[in-house]
Amino acid sequence: MEMVKELDPALIKRKRNGQINIKSGNKIDSVVKWTIWVLTALTILAFFFFDYTGLQLERAVTETLHNIRVMFFEPGLSHFSWGEAFYQVGVTLGLGVLATIFGAIIAFFLSLMAAENLSKPWLSNTVRVVVAFIRAVPTVLWVLIFAIAAGLGSEAAVLGMLFHSVAYLVKAFSESFEEVNPGIIEALRATGSSWWHIVINGVLPSTFTYLLSWTFLRFEINFSVAVAMGAAAGAGGIGFELFMASGFYFDLREVGFITYAILIIAIILEVISTRLKERYFPSSVKTR
Amino acid sequence: MDAKQMRKNKWQTTIFLILIILITYLSSFITNFNLIESIATIPAAFSWIFSNLLITEESLQKLPQILEKLGETIFMSIAATTLAAVVSLFLAIMGSKTTKVNQTFSVIARFIASFSRNIPVVAWSLILLISFGQNSVTGFLALFVATVGFLTRAFIESVDEANQSSVEALTATGATYFHMISKAVIPQSLPQMLSWILFMIETNIRSATLVGILTGTGIGYMFDLYYKNMNYNLVALITFTIIIAVIAIELVSNKIRRVIL
């Protein structure tokens, strides 16, 4: 019987002339190959759709190289002092902290609703769809939309950044909750404990370090988002100074100084979060 | 767990919570953030969104122009991601512990990646804007540089995770370095890398909007233009098209990911 099954003609891929195709790959290979071809084709096509108004490539490249040299080798301050610079970096960090902490609190409750082992299917699906929708709108659009209603300032920035933080953390948190050993939940349920008891005494203790690590990873992202919001949505902080230095004063030395300031903070945050990942995450979740 | 340990844990939790509250308070002080005020604005903001961000028939007439700019943005992020992936592949092979040629190249590759990743895309686009001017190339380059940094880190992880035994087996048969890379390392880590590339395309479409606002290109520029003109119907339409595009791309890449991973 086994032989008959193996010789099933539908399973043997033949070339047009009837030869058996010995090179026929599996589905994974063909999908990988197709994806790469499509992406390559789209990339080539892209250069025909670009808008090249006012571009003088040679001049632009030499100028940019010169600018980058000025920025990184002669950084300096001219429009504000060191104290002011520290304060502005603090504002950006503050915006990141607020969006992350409030985001984590909201995300905690939403992810309890989104986790399949703690919630009902309809509720978890609803939360997931809402989160996917929120994620699809770029953060800068959220901030700008809130800026009309709340006025420009830290409130609009934090509220706008909150949306993406919540969406990101709900995904991360609910996946951590779903990995909780079902035995723990079952044991607690058998003792007749309520849903809140299960969450506080069963789920929370075994996932707490994950939640904290994810929250910190989001803080790393939120710092660069806060820089971006300062530049693009007038949220203040070091991002706004960067925008002013390059867009209004054309002061490359100051741009260089600000870039160094951002770079130093970003590298510190990255080192901490790499350590957290290596220490607390198993290799299966590390690559994300 | 004895009583002493439990008391210690309780203390740790309390101190931790106090620390978090202090940091939050300090942050709201330095940023002039008012929690109560901002909670109060949320209902107002949503009622504003539902009464002003409406797509009208009049705004639909601009749809072809918007779609053209959206297309430009999508192309920009795909091109930036794909080309960045090619560069990142070389950097990752240089930088990975298992496939590096020598220590110097490895350090250089990791340095380039860290440098381009940690300078935010905003800074790159503002720097490039000065000499490249308002066109797609500026946005493309800004996304490209930031993506190289991110993808190199991700690719290094994928290459490091590749199974060593096939590399060893090939080395034993006397295969050259290039044989080893092309027959053992790349085939193994390709699906993982492709998944990262797809993830980066999604991310870059959202970043492209931000870069567009700063550099005056693509859909970001359209948004900024109508936002400043207070033409909120068009703002709503543009936001809606971005949502559709991002969700569509996410669905396609999820489907591909489900097959290849």
In the CATH hierarchy, what is the architecture of the largest domain in chain A at level 2? Orthogonal Bundle
What is the number of E strands of chain B? Answer: 0
The averaged pLDDT of chain B comes out at: 86
Per CATH, the class of the largest domain in chain B reads: Mainly Alpha
Annotated CATH homologous superfamily of the largest domain in chain B: MetI-like
Which H/E pattern describes the elements of chain B? HHHHHHHHHHH
- The end-to-end span of chain B amounts to 41 Å
Low-confidence stretches of chain A: 283-288
CATH topology of the largest domain in chain B: MetI-like fold
Strand segment tally of chain A: 0
Q: CATH architecture of the largest domain in chain B, please?
A: Orthogonal Bundle
Query: Total number of helical segments of chain A?
Result: 12
Cα-atom radius of gyration of chain A: 26 Å
Query: Ranges of chain B with pLDDT <50 over ≥5 residues?
Result: none
Quickly describe the structure.
By secondary structure, chain A is mainly alpha-helical.
Topology:
The complex is a heterodimer of chains A (288) and B (261).
Chain A: H1 2-6, H2 27-49, H3 57-73, H4 82-114, H5 121-136, H6 139-150, H7 154-178, H8 182-190, H9 195-233, H10 238-247, H11 252-280, H12 283-286
Chain B: H1 3-30, H2 35-52, H3 57-60, H4 63-95, H5 103-118, H6 121-132, H7 136-161, H8 164-172, H9 177-215, H10 218-228, H11 232-260
Helix pairs in contact in B: 4-5, 4-7, 4-9, 4-10, 4-11, 5-7, 6-7, 6-9, 7-9, 8-9, 9-10, 9-11, 10-11
Describe the structure.
The complex is a heterodimer of chains A (288) and B (261). With 288 residues, chain A is mainly alpha-helical. Chain A folds into two domains: 14-49, no CATH class; 85-286, MetI-like fold (Orthogonal Bundle). Helices cover 77% and strands 0% of the residues of chain A. With 261 residues, chain B is mainly alpha-helical. Helices cover 86% and strands 0% of the residues of chain B. Chain B has helices at residues 3-30, 35-52, 57-60, 63-95, 103-118, 121-132, 136-161, 164-172, 177-215, 218-228, 232-260. The longest helix of chain B has 39 residues, at 177-215. The radius of gyration of chain B is 24 Å and the shape is globular. The model of chain B has no long low-confidence stretch (mean pLDDT 86). Chains A and B meet through helix 2, helix 3, helix 4, helix 5 and helix 6 of A and helix 1, helix 2, helix 4, helix 5 and helix 6 of B.
